[in-house]
């Protein structure tokens, strides 16, 4: 499996496109600039199966409607943030004058628990990692040694918890209980910034001292 990191929008939120040799792909967190993402998909002759969201802050969902409509694919999100796709006050876009209000249609599928999921030829584990937001999810692809962690864990940092519904203690517990137990060689694909590994964050992340 191949992965591509595509920073999108004013906050350079990482969208990830995971693809197989047959060009089937999954799209994670299409945050903005739908034209840029669509061009990447078309140039590489990819065939999207679904849009999957780590959480529903505005910078992770801004291109959802355009990409969903263009490729005719379903959207997956945690049920705790189902209304965030529709409400600029909940997804945070209403807080910033320089950001357009983000609102769209309901998702097609709602995730309510940890489970193994298969979409097309892609099989992965869904991990609930709340704290940055109540419905934050991480997606672990064991066969490829990678986890898409959204804004839970970054290279040398962790997700902010000063936004509405954030909870610092809950985030630290999520990282400790769900992410740091993964093999140390696991690649961590974060919502912002460069990729890292579980081992690197265990050794050097200043927010995780003691773990």
Portion in beta strands: 25-35%
What is the 3D shape? globular
Largest sheet: 6 strands, mixed
Number of helices: 6
Strand order across the biggest sheet? 1-2-3-4-5-6
Q: pLDDT below 50 for ≥5 consecutive residues: which ranges?
A: none
Broad structural category: alpha/beta
Helix and strand element order: EEEHEHHEHEEEEEEEHEEH
Mean pLDDT rating: 96
Number of strands: 14
Helical content class: 10-25%
Describe the structure.
This protein has 211 residues and is α/β, with parallel strands linked by helices. It contains 6 helices and 14 strands. The strands form 3 sheets. The protein has a 6-stranded mixed sheet, with helices on one face. Strands 7-8-9-10-13-14 form a 6-stranded mixed sheet. A hairpin with a 5-residue loop joins strand 13 and strand 14. The chain is globular.
């Amino acid at each position: 499996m191949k992965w591509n990191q595509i920073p999108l929008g004013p906050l350079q939120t990482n969208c990830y496109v995971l693809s197989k040799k047959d060009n089937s792909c999954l799209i994670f967190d299409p945050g903005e600039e739908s034209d840029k993402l669509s061009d990447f998909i078309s140039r590489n002759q990819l065939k999207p199966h679904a849009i999957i969201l780590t959480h529903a802050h505005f910078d992770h969902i801004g291109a959802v409607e355009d990409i969903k409509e263009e490729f005719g694919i379903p959207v997956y999100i945690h049920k705790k943030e189902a209304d965030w796709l529709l409400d600029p006050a909940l997804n945070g876009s209403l807080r910033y004058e320089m950001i357009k209000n983000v609102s769209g249609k309901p998702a097609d599928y709602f995730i309510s628990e940890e489970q193994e999921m298969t979409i097309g030829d892609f099989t992965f584990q869904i991990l609930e990692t709340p704290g940055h937001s109540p419905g934050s999810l991480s997606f672990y692809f064991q066969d490829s040694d990678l986890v898409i962690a959204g804004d839970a864990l970054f290279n040398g940092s962790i997700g902010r918890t000063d936004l509405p519904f954030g909870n610092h203690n809950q985030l630290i517990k999520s990282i400790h209980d769900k992410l740091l137990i993964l093999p140390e060689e696991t690649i961590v694909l974060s919502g912002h910034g460069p990729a890292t590994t579980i081992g690197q964050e265990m050794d050097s992340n200043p927010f995780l001292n003691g773990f």
